[in-house]
Amino acid sequence: MNAITKRPSSLTQAQFHYCPGCGHSVVHRLVAEVIDELNIKDRAVVVAPVGCAVFADKYFDVDSIQGPHGRGPAIATGIKRAKPESIVFSYQGDGDLASIGMAEIVHAAARGENITVIFINNTIYGMTGGQMAPTTLVGQVATTAPKGRNEKLQGNPINVSEMLAQLKSAKYIERVSSDSAPNIIKAKKAIKKAFQNQLDGVGFSFVEVLSICPTNWGVTPLKGLEFLREKMIAQYPLGVFKDLTVANKEGK
Amino acid sequence: MAEKVLMKGNEALAEGAIRAGCRFFAGYPITPQNEVPEYMSWRQEEAGGAFVQAESEVSAINMLYGAAATGVRAMTSSSSPGLSLKQEGISYMAGADLPCLIVNIMRGGPGLGNIAGAQGDYTQATRGGGNGDYRTFVLAPFSVQELANFPKKAFELSEKYRVPAMILADGILGQMMEGMSFDFEPVDPKTLPQPCWAIGGKHADRARNMVFSYALGEGELEKMVLKRAERYALIERDEVIYEERDTQDAEVLIVAYGISARASIAAMNIARANGIKAGLLRPITLWPFPSKRIAELSKKVKAILCVEMSMGQMKVDVDLSVKNACPVYLHAKPGAFFPVAEEIAIAIESALKGRKDQLFNIEDLAKKAENKIYAVNNPVCKEGALL
Amino acid sequence: MYQGVRIAGFGGQGVVSAGVLLAQAGLVDGKAVSWYPSYGPEMRGGTANCSVVITDGEVSTPVVSAPDTAIVMNEPSLPKFEPLLKKGGLLIINSSLIKSKPKRNDIRVVYVDCNAIAEKVGSLKAANLVALGTFAGITGAISIDSIASAMKKVFKRAKPEILELNRKALEEGAKLK
User: What DSSP letter does each residue of A188-229 carry, written as one string?
Assistant: First the structure.
């Protein structure tokens, strides 16, 4: 019998604790495949966040550090500056990155840190139980917005990719989705590029992955995917917001 | 010993850290420690290390967390309000058992306070100022020479026990210049062993390492905290550092650290000239605190006088050591006023004679506050009643 | 020997660097020294000042709250530092810029036309050194030679002719009693 696929060697044998339908499992696998393909397992470092992905350090079979809520990009900066041969990636959710850690992500991008950031946007706080996130859509129900997010009271969602793309030192910003096979293939391509950039010394590379949270949205995974396609993408369009990879490589 | 040069405290500290092999610095501007990041900004580059001006104290301490996790000698510095912001990261580093150096050039507080030298962060520093059950080494220099020497000592202690180390100085020490010399061989970081727990770098020859402060399995955290407590107990037994002056025949023992100890030495000399036998114990490690020695001395002296630029924060540790073996008094200069030798000399005499009216008297303070508190609670209270 | 000195004036009059120079000179002589500046808001809007201690013993207090000598270079510094002086202390007044008279009669007052003397030797910038010269001449706490050799360490990039001019300013100041 011929094996057509196998568990990436950059994943440990630990079983994911993620809920059925959760996008983290898919993205973890994509990242692990990329680490395998780029042959960087012996110098990759994952910076695990606070949130559902707090145990990312248990799943990736690479060096790891788990840090305070939102501070991933600062920790990644410290590692990369102290040991530049490391390939450092910060893996963060939307509460972690877009709320409590907004300063850290903006300034890491502004400094043009040569790191990779994987940003999982599922419009809600997962670990703490479905509270409103900065990315929650207007009208979307959350445990701290039981009547739905009210634009007048809670304002509008933050589009992080568009915002970071404004910064001159951010080199590569793309938003992808984990909702379908074709989109997952595109997501992997983006993630691979974000790691390849770090290897090439290009600079700050950022991939936002739209993801579902059926548990906290209170829907089935299939309904969740519908919500992602119909509602989320309207607020968070997919695409490349910035790509200075080529220009920078030539200028190197 | 090398020829003495005139050097500013903050710069001597920064150069001392570089010579101790520090090759990573992250910090944020705040007075009165600005010379430290300024010096580091060019000196780290020259030494082949890294310098990052962070967007905040919070970010700086987390950069330190990342850098320290790679096993390099890494430091950050700040001043009081900045240290409040750094507590999150210090707690994580204590929980992850990482060696590192954190410097606090203290200024007046609480809040924005002022920018003059103060000692109001004693409790925060010695009790582990962040969340959870932990301690950090706290070294208290009292001269520019010690500011230059202590980074090396701090790194060595921190690495030996995998406990973060802090240097607790103040704005006066940071800003002043004194004659000093670098009397130790510079450490070449390449000669330091790569710790087995460190992350980062290329490592085909070892399994992965994990740096974290969590333990969510049942009973796991308790085990981690207890293991750390064993090390803390060993530190308290073996790593206490202090200096004594004229304690052999002392009737009054002054306990003072850092810049307060310098004024106390002058006061001690005045007292001795007036026929009062005063001696000084200067804690150099504030944690671990020289409790044992103070307890011994408390049985020989008639009174102890604590001199500090805070409201008896250090006195709490002295009280705990003395256990009522002799009276313990306080000469406090809070609000970033420098203790004056002549005033301390009066306090020494008052302590010897038990003249409480001449010393800080908590009962008096309570009486003073009584009427004012009433005014505050009164609906027609006047503006500024608290003052 | 113990000398606690406060030097005060406008930012730009070189009061802070005069202090560094004095401390460095003390170090050259093998004395224990300290220098401590005013900083932050204290520096804004008028006067800068610094404390210098030169002693045979240990420097206990780098903040000189009761100076043996106060050197005041501008008008606002006089009312600020005159009251702090020790009884019998020395007050050196830059009479080029200070028209008010001190109020105390338990101190020794010396008026020095610092700016004019400095201009005469070649540069207004040396006014602070004229005052230092006077301090050295009267107190004997430090010699002109020591200050001159300290200059080479403090003003590392100064040209020889500037150092020569500075020395002249010190010597002119030292003539005054």
Answer: HHHHHHHHHHHHTT--EEEEEEE---HHHHTS-HHHHHHHII
Token digits for B354?
Answer: 């038990």
Find which of C22, C27, C44, C86 to mutate to test the B interface (most B CBs within 10 Å of its CB).
C27
Q: List residues of chain B with CB under 8 Å from any CB of chain C.
A: 4-6, 31-32, 115, 172, 175-179, 262-263, 265-266, 338, 340-341
| Residues B96/B160, Cβ–Cβ less than 8 Å | no
Q: How would residue C41 be classed by pLDDT, with cut points 50, 70 and 90?
A: low
Q: Which chains have at least 3 CB atom pairs separated by less than 8 Å from chain A? A: B
Percent of all residues in chain C with a pLDDT value above 90, rounded to a whole number: 86
A residues 107-136 near B, CB within 8 Å? 107, 111
State which H helix or E strand residue A170 sits in: strand A170-177
Q: How many CA atoms lie within 13 A of A81 on its CB side?
A: 33
pLDDT of residue B286: 98
Cα dihedral value A66, A67, A70, A75, nearest 10: -100
Rounded-to-integer distance, Cα C5 and Cα C73, Å = 13
Does domain A23-246 fall under CATH 3.40.50.970? My reply is: yes
Distance from CA of B232 to the nearest CA of A (A): 23
Question: What is the complex's ipTM, to 2 decimals?
Answer: 0.95
* pLDDT classification of B382: cutoffs 50, 70, 90: low
Report, as an integer, the average pLDDT of B333-359.
Answer: 90
- What distance in Å separates the CA atoms of residue A63 and residue A76, rounded to the nearest whole number? 12
- Give the distance from residue B203's alpha carbon to the nearest chain C alpha carbon, in angstroms: 47
Q: How many CB atoms lie within 10 A of CB B329?
A: 25
CATH code for the domain of C107: 3.40.920.10
State the pTM of this model.
0.95
Distance CA C173, CA C128 (A): 10
Chains A and B touching, counted as 3 or more CB pairs less than 8 Å apart: yes
Q: Taking residues B166-176, report their average pLDDT.
A: 97
B123 interface with A at CB cutoff 8 Å: no
Position C177 scores a pLDDT of 79
Side chain identity, residue B220: E
Q: Does residue A49 belong to the interface with chain B, where contact is any CB pair within 8 Å?
A: no
Torsion, Cα of B328, B329, B332, B338 (10° steps): -90
- Contact at CB, B62 and A88, closer than 8 angstroms: no
pLDDT digits (tens, 9 = 90+) for B2-37: 789 999 999 999 999 999 999 999 999 999 999 999
C29: domain range?
2-174
What token pair was written down for B176?
């002043």
Contact between residue A99 and residue A193 where contact means Cβ atoms under 8 Å apart? no
Task: Sketch the domain layout of chain A as residue ranges.
Answer: 23-246
Tell me whether chains C and B touch (3+ CB pairs under 8 A).
Answer: yes
Q: Which domains does chain B have, with CATH numbers?
A: 5-238 (3.40.50.970), 244-366 (3.40.50.920)
Give, in order, the Cα–Cα distances in Å from B142 to each of B36, B37, B169, B263, B346: 17, 21, 8, 10, 23
Chain A within 8 Å of B73 (Cβ-Cβ)?
no
Q: What is the mean pLDDT of residues B358-365?
A: 81
Q: How many domains does chain C have?
A: 1
CB contact under 8 A, A86 and B54: no
d(CA A195, CA B238): 47
DSSP letter for A230, please. I
Give me the phi and psi of A154, to 5 degrees please: -115, 5
CA distance A229 to chain B (A): 36
The answer to whether B171 and B32 are in contact (CB under 8 A) is: yes
